[in-house]
Amino acid sequence: MLALQILVDGFAISALYALGATGFTLIFGVSGVLNLSHGGLMVLGAVAAWAATNELHVGAYLAALFGIGVTLIAAFATYFVVVRPLQTSRAIPKEETEIFVLTGTLLWGIMIQELIAYFFTDNAKTVLPIVEGVVNIFGVRTPQNEIFTAIICWVVIGVLWLIVNKTRSGKAVLAASMNPRGVTLLGFELSRIYIAIWAIYGILAGIAGVLLGMFLGVSSYSAGPLTGSAFSIVVLGGLGSVSGSLVAAYVVGYLETVTAYMISPAYRTIPALLLLVAVMYVRPQGLFGRR
Amino acid sequence: MANLFRSRIFWIALIGSLVALLLPLKVSGYILGLLTVAYYFGVFSMAWDLLFGFAGEVNFGPTFLIGLGAYTAGILNGYGVPVYPCIAAGAVMAVVGGVVLALPALRVRGPYFGLTTLVAVLIMMNLIVVFAGFTGGEIGLTVPDVLSIDERTNYYIALIFMIVSGIILFALSRSPVGLILQASGQDPVEAGALGFNVTKHKLAAFVISAFFSGLAGALLVFYMGTASVGTLVSISVGVQVIIAAVLGGRRTIIGAAIGAIFLIAAGEALRPFGELSTFIVSAIALVVILFVPSGLLGLISRRGEHA
Amino acid sequence: MTTRHHRSIRHTLLSGAAAFASLFLAAQAQAADPIKIAVIAEAQAIAGASIPQAAQLAADEINAKGGVDGRQIQIITYDNKSSSADSVRAFQRAVSDDKVNAVIASYISEVVLALEPWAARLKTVMITPGAASNQITKAVHDDYEKNKYTFHGYLTSAELAMSVCDGAKDILVNDRKMKTAVIMSEDAAWTTPLDVGYKECLPKIGLQVLDHIRMSPDTTDFTPIYNKIEGQKPDVMITGISHVGVQPTVQWKSQQVPIPMLGIASQATNSTFWKDTNGAADGVLFQSVSGPGVAVTSKSVPFADAFNKKYGNFPSYAGYTAYDEVYYIADAVKRAGSTDSDKLVEALEKTDWEGTIGRIQFYGKEDQFTHGLKYGKGLITGMISQWQDGKQVAVWPPEIANGKIRFPSFIKAQN
C-alpha cells in the first residue's frame, strides 16, 4: 500500500522535474549556457496564470496558455537582454563568459523574483486546475490533477523528441548541441538555432511552471530551490544529455518521495544531494555525460 | 606597467582607508554599524576573488566556509569557551572544511566545481536545521559573548581586519604564487607543462580563501551576537558575496571590498524605494556586468583588465 | 528633548523677559513636535503588509481629531524583508537616526526575538502586532528591568492554544462528538509553545492526541504528511501554520483528505486567501482575533471597512492589532504626558483600552506572561471562523457568530 502510494506520487513529481530540467539541459547543450533565472521563469509562468484567472477572470485553459506565453516572452528577454550581450561582449574574455552568464542570469532571476513579490506578494499562489477530483488507483486516492500533470509532461517530452528527431530544423538543433560549428557549415545560421532553442525552452519552462502551480502551488520563494533542483538533476544526468536528465529526474524524484514517506518530510532533499556529491566524486561527467 | 597599475590601486586603497579611519568622527552610530557589516562582507568577497580571479575556480559556496567558521565559533562559545579562542577555532575549522571540500572538488572543473561547492552549502543548510539542538536551527544561534557593545570599537575591529586581510591577499595575488595561480587558472595544461603543480597551488588558494572566510564569519558572529542561516549561510548571502566581487572588479582583490561596501551602501540609499530596493540593486549590478564587465575598479583604473 | 531643554536654560541666563518668551516658544515647539512611531514589517507578505497600512490609518484618524495634546502622530515605515538582520538594522536606524518614540515590529517571532535585546539596549518601547512565541514575554518576566520595553500586542502561543481549545470544545466535541486529533504544525519558534499548549489542553476538552507532526516551513509537497495523518484516522487535524498556508490547503482539497482542519492558520486570516487558493479554502476553520463584518467590539467593523475603503482589501490579523497599538500608544503618551521611554512603559502597563480585538490590558511583572495581552471573557477570547463561498464566516463564540459550520462534501464530518 505504502509502496504503491510512493510509486504513484513519485511518478508525477518526477515527471514535473523531468520537464523542468529538459529545457534547461537543451540550452546548455546547444549554447553552453546555465540559466540561473530558470526558477524565476517557472514561477513567473505560474503566477501569470494565477493572475489571469483572478485579475482578468479567464478560464483555466486560457490562463494556462497565458502563463506559458508570459514565460516564453520572458525567456526571449533573458536571451536578448542578458545572455546574448554577455556572450558577444568584447570586453569579456572568452574563458570568463561562463561566469558572467551565470552571474547575469542569477541577477536577472532575482529581478524577476522581486518583481513578482512586489506586485503579487510573496505568499504562495495556486493556478486554477484544469481537472479536479480524485480517482482510485488500486486503493490509492489520487488527484486527477496529478495524473493530468504526469500525462502532459510526458506528452510534451514526446512531442519534443519527435521534433528533434524527425524534423529538419529539429535535427539541426540536435546537431548544434553536439557540434555548433559543424551546423553552420551545413548552412544553418547558429543565431536562428539559438532563437529556436530559447523558444522551446520558454515553452517548456512555462508548461512546467503552470503545472507546478496547479499541482503544488508556488511562491516567489520557490524560484531559488527550483533553479537548484533543475541544476542538480541536469548535472546528475550529465550536462547537455536530455535522456540523462530524464533518468536523473526520476532518480531524484523517487529518492525524495521515498525519504519523505519512509523517514520524514523534513529530510526530503538530503539523500538526493548526497547522491549528487557522490556521483560528482566518482563520475564527474554525470550518469550519462558525454565528456 | 604593472607598477603603474599597482600604484593606482594602492592610492585608491590608501585614500579609502584613511577616509574610513576618520569616518567615526563624522557619521552616526547607525552608519558605522552598517559599514561594520560591509567590511566583513568585503573580506568574504576578497577571499572569494582570490579563488576566482586568480585560481580561475568559481566557488558558488563561499557561505559554506563562512558558515563553518561562524557556527564553529558560535557553538563553542555556547559551551563557555572565550571569544578569541572561538574565533581561532572557527578559522581552523573553515580551513579543515575547505580542504575536505577542495581535495575532491578540484578534480573537476568549470560548472562541476561550482556545483560541488553549491551542494556543500545546501547540505550544510539542511544539517543546521536537522541538528537544531546545537545550531538553533531556523531560528538561529544566540551567542553569549560579543566583541564589544561599542559601535566605534566594533567599527575599528572590522576596518582593521579588512585592511590587514586586504594587504595580505593583495600581496599574495601579486607574488610569484599569485602569478602561477593566474597562469593555471587560464590555462592549466600549459601551467602544468611548465612544471608547476597546478592542483597544489589551487589547494593553497582554497585554504587561504577558507581561512579568511572562516575568520571573518566568526568575527561577524561576535559582532551581531547571533548566527543564522539567513544572514550567514543561505545561497542569497553567497550570491551577494559573488556579485560584490564581480561588481567591484574581479582579479583586483581591492575591488571586491569596494563592491561589498557599494552593495550595502546602495541597499541603504535605495531604502526609500522599500520593497523595490533589491530589484534596483540587482538591476544596477546587471547593468554594470553588461556594460562595464571589468567592474567599478576597472572603471577607475582602465588597465584593470590586463593586470 | 534634552537639547531643547539646555537651550531654554541658556536663554534664561540672558534676560528675564527673553527667557520667558523662549520658554514659551520651546513649549510651543514641543507641543507641535510629532510623536514618531516606527513600523518595521514584512511589506511583501500579506500578513505583514497590513501592519504599516493599519498603523497609518490609525495615525490619520488620530491626527484628524487634533492629535495627542496637539502633537501629530508620524508613522515611519521600514521594510524588513522578513529578515532578522534587516530588522535589527532598521531598529537601529529608527532609534539613532529617526529618533522614534516607539516601535511596532513584525509578525514573525524570530524577528521579534532578535529585536528584543535591541529594545533593551536602546531603551525604546517595542510592541509586536503579530508574533506569538512565549519567549517574548518570558524574557520580560525573567529580566524585567532590562526587557521591560517590550510589549506583546498579540496573543502568546499558549493563549492561542487556549483559544483554539476553547473553540474546539464547543464546536467539535460538544456539537460533533469528535474524540481524536492529530496536531500538524510548522517547525518555528512560535509553534514550540503552541504545541505544548495543544498537547496540554486538547485531552482536557476530550480530544485524544494521536500524533504530533512537525514539518519544515519549506515543505511544498504535503502528500506524505496527509497520507500519514489519514492512516491514523483522527477526527480532526489541529493546525499551527503561518509560513505555509496556501499549499497545504490546496493539496488538502485536491487530494480530498477527508479530515477537517481547525487551528491557527495565519494565511487563512488574509482576505485574499480564497483567491490565492482558488477556492480550496472552502471549509477551512481557523482561529483569529477579529475579522471583516464581525463585531468583536464596536470598533472592529468600522476599522475593517475603513481599511478596505482605503487599501482595497481587508486587513490581516496583524492589521487589527497594529491599528489598536497606535491608539493605545497614543493613549499612553497622553496619560504619561511624555514620550520618555520609562514613563511610557509605566503608562502602557496601565493600559485599559477597547480596541478592535477586544479589551486590551497587559499582564504585570509577577504574571507568567509579563507584558502579554490578558486572555479571557470580557477581555480577548479570539474567535473561530470558517471560509465559506469566498467569505470568512464567524462560527464561534456564539455571541458574535454570523454563520453555521459547513464542510465541503469530501469531509467526513457532520455539518
What is this entry, summarized?
By secondary structure, chain A is mainly α.
Q: How would you explain this protein's 3D organization?
A:
The complex is a heterotrimer of chains A (291), B (307) and C (415). Chain A is built from 11 helices and 2 strands. Chain A is an all-alpha fold and 291 residues long. Chain A has a two-stranded antiparallel ribbon with strand order 1-2. In chain A, helix 3 (60-88) crosses helix 8 (190-215) and helix 9 (223-237) packs parallel to helix 11. Chain B has 307 residues and is mostly helical. Residues 303-307 of chain B have low confidence and may be disordered. In chain C, strands 7-6-8-9-10-13-14 form a 7-stranded mixed sheet. In chain C, strands 2-1-3-4-5 form a 5-stranded parallel sheet, sandwiched between helices. Chain C has a two-stranded antiparallel sheet with strand order 11-12. By secondary structure, chain C is an alpha/beta fold. In chain C, 45% of the residues lie in helices and 17% in strands. The A-B interface holds A 34, 82, 85-86, 89, 91-92, 95, 98-100, 102-104, 106-108, 110-111, 114-115, 117-118, 224, 228, 231-232, 235, 239, 266-267, 269-270, 273-274, 276-277, 280-281, 284 and B 52, 56, 58, 104-105, 107-108, 110-112, 114-116, 118-120, 122-123, 126, 129-130, 186, 235-236, 239, 242-243, 246, 275-276, 278-279, 282-283, 285-286, 289-290, 292-294, 305.
Which structural class matches the secondary elements of chain A?
Answer: mainly alpha
Count of helical regions of chain C: 15
- Strand coverage percent of chain A: under 5%
Unreliable residue runs of chain C: 1-29
SSE layout and pairing:
The complex is a heterotrimer of chains A (about 290), B (about 300) and C (about 425).
Chain A: H1 2-31, H2 38-54, H3 60-88, H4 97-120, E1 134-137, E2 140-143, H5 144-166, H6 168-178, H7 180-185, H8 190-215, H9 223-237, H10 242-263, H11 270-282
Antiparallel strand pairs in A: 1-2
Chain B: H1 2-22, H2 29-54, H3 62-78, H4 83-105, H5 111-130, H6 132-135, E1 141-142, H7 151-174, H8 176-186, H9 188-193, H10 198-224, E2 226-227, H11 229-233, H12 235-248, H13 254-269, H14 277-291, H15 295-300
Antiparallel strand pairs in B: 1-2
Chain C: H1 2-14, H2 16-32, E1 35-41, H3 46-64, E2 73-79, H4 84-97, E3 102-105, H5 109-121, E4 125-128, H6 134-142, H7 144-147, E5 150-152, H8 157-176, E6 180-186, H9 191-205, E7 208-215, H10 223-231, E8 236-241, H11 246-254, E9 261-265, H12 273-276, E10 285-288, H13 300-311, H14 317-336, H15 341-349, E11 353-354, E12 359-360, E13 383-388, E14 391-396
Parallel strand pairs in C: 1-2, 1-3, 3-4, 4-5, 6-7, 6-8, 8-9, 9-10
Antiparallel strand pairs in C: 10-13, 11-12, 13-14
Helix pairs in contact in C: 1-2, 3-14, 4-5, 8-9, 14-15
